Amino acid sequence: MSITKKTSSSSAEVDSSNSAANATSAAAAAAPPTANSSDHSDIAIYGQQPPKEETPEFLSSSFAELDRELDNLPEEKKAGWLKAKEKCPELVGEGHRLMFLRCEVFRADDAAIRITKYWNKRIELFGENLAFKPLTMEANGALPKN
Asked: What is d(CA 81, CA 79) in angstroms, rounded to the nearest whole number?
């Protein structure tokens, strides 16, 4: 279907079906990859690596490597992490450590630095009394409603 648009100086013919198709393909080309995408070839344009396959064996070795890296850090850098392990072990379990491993694409050395910085900053911001409570607005959380 063709639409003719007349202007004061010239006339231009626009094919609306081609315009719509061009707009759709341009939008698709500009869209970032989706989390469900199985083709990770376009992730490289963002400077990231494709996700690792998280088999039980891979996760087990990643946790062991993270623990070794945490053990190798100087005591003053991991003070917050050590306090968290002591005062709120329920908050620093496998799920918590996995979050930091995923963030660093399973580079255990970087994950160890990130997790220790996180806990040191959390203690700095919330203080010793609230830092080791869940970050929720519930009565027992670090973010009370009042």
From this structure: 5
